[in-house]
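User: Structure tokens for this complex, please. No commentary.
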Amino acid sequence: MTTTNPGFSRRRFLALGGAVAGSAASGALAVGCSPASSTNTPAATGTGSSAKGVVTVMSQSGEFGPKEAKAASQALGLTVKTVEYDLTKLTAMLASGNPPDVVRGMGATETPYLVARQVAENLDPYFAKSTLIKADDIDPVNDVWRYDGEKQGSGPRYGFAKDYSQDCTIWYNGALFDAAKVTRPSATTPLLLDELLDEGRRLVKRQGAKVSVYGLNPNGLGLFGQLTWMTDLAGGKLTADDLASVDFSTPEAQRALTWYLEYAKAGIGPTVLNPDPNGWDGPTFQAGRMATTLSGYWLGGLFAGDPKSAKVAGFAPAPQFDTGRRVSPCFGATGLWMPKAGKNKDAAWAVMEWYLAGDPAKARASGGWGIPPLKSLQKLMPQKLPYQKQAYDVQMAEKEHFSVTSYTPYVRQDAINAVITRELPKAIKGSTSVGQFADTLNTQINAQLADGKKRLR
Amino acid sequence: MTSALTEVRRREAPAEAPSADRRKKPPSLRKARTFYLFVAPWIIGFVALTVFPLGYAFWLSLTDSDGLSPRTHFVGFDNYVEIFKDPLTLSSLGKTGLFALVTVPLSILAGLLLAVMLNQPIKGRGLLRGLIYLPAVVPPVGAALTFRLIFDRDAGAANGVLSGLGANPITWLVDPNVRYVLYALVLWGCGGSMIISLAGLQDIPRELLEAAQVDGASYWQSFTRITVPLLSPVILFQVITGVIGSLQSFAPLLLSSGSLSGAGTVPQGNYLYMIHVFAQYFSASRFGYASAMLWMLFAVILLVTLVIIKVSARTVFYTVEPGGQK
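Assistant:
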């Protein structure tokens, strides 16, 4: 036996083949998940429907899963199948011309994007003939699912919320407020954002340099939404009227940025530099490690089965700046929409109508995981426990401060949030000023918007 | 006797029925048909699951597709040109190169070191081999989630230990420290490399090492002159697969959020090439550009592999049987 040093060989061919096959596998993807709200679907009542055939619903299994599909099949006399929500899969199904018949979506941020790409079906004709959804019963929040090509909030309806929250309303841990000798937030008078920041500083608990209790989490469902809202509170606008550009350099936008940077530098809550390992506020709040969070009504659904949290939880209106302007936005209004290329639209509408306004909607309403999209169902919201009653009263009063914010059709919110997240650490650490931060955001986000607009030509 | 008879029959056979044989298909054709029948499932799978997706991705790379809109435009090679102008793409490629340069040698060295140690006749080595290999079979998502919890600034075990020692907590999961957490996560799975090296070590003929010992070679000399050269094909295999794996790594995504749409939130220190690809696909919805990036990655992997093979030509030694068969 000898050793040698050969040239190109069978083994080398196999190694090279491995490289080629490895590259081909580059598209291997992982699917993320997010906390899903609970639905308590009742047994089907067998109301029946004239629509027939198979309906495929793409949603999260915790919202519209096999159990809901079975109940829908029994109630409507249809075959209802479910597919787990996955953007990759949705894209592939749309590209193949065989999309799901009904798809989960976040109306507030997705409607203009979907409509501008001619993907979503105009549902006005279906609403017009609906027996379960009457025009005067529709909560105004559902206007986030409307888009007229220029502005969100008017024009045809392209979807409908299953439930919603005004996402800047406050949940607080009363016990932590009492322990820190901080007055609990008023149920009627909104806190000023500067007061909120100050209270966060007093509520935070540290063990050495570590934070054991967060004083405040104002991050909401994404920083672009939060900054848009705060700029609005300051009396300005972050996005131009044509939705094709942003301007972070106005005094109002600078005020919003400055407030957020003060919060981040104070180290009193989760930021991009110190993320909450739980990924969302639920477990942190339940563990008594979150004093205040701008999370919206839906988070209260979590406390119904958690007596410890139910005892200390309190709900308060969305805060405001000292400008006197009061806005309580909705960044989600998660619901269902129908792809334009769907094959069985009448049956798809029957499923949507049943899920959004039928028995499942009533069951959801009493669960407390969000505000029902129909006014008539809102009286079913839970009020049995003291925290539920308090939250209900605050929420009902808060409704009048809702208004639709127009989101751009040119890029996804994720893309804008990614730019903010990328540039934010430098601003928090002080290596860039607020003005420089604003200029960077303007340059990068406006380039994205311009590219998106060009692709929609 | 039997062999001789057989031999005779083989010689005589053509003379007995030449016309009948001409009517039958030639043996080579029959063999080819059998071969293709056997490999057909693989060929069908390869075409459907590799050739077609690659072709589709190439077509996408020539468009400005956003994955949703039917209004897709042909843009030629604009996406490929943009790759060379996009600072984020270039910097992510540089970071990926650095990541491969650090993690591949470290993983192989750690695996080899463990393999050498566990190739010794020590008590309980079977258990030790199993324990060290265990992290390699933990699903990457689980491992990343565990690391997120361990290295959390406020509630993590790592800072708990530091606090116990009186040191200040470290924000591990953000720049610049998150890069080291990523390296640790990758090295955590070096048990896989250990198993491959161990198999290679056990394939080395004992008589070679014994002969060297008889000739007075030290352990280090035996290791560097006999063990390493005979392990070189195994090391080459690990280098090539390791580099490919590193260039395609999306471990930073799992470490940061675990969600595809969260690709844009990965800290800049860990913003590797595939993370940028994910961000372009699922945050920016730039399917055309992201597809061009994947094709560019394919070219880079091919190039790097060829370079490694070329460079290794003088340093990798293959066992050759006396008859010349490798």
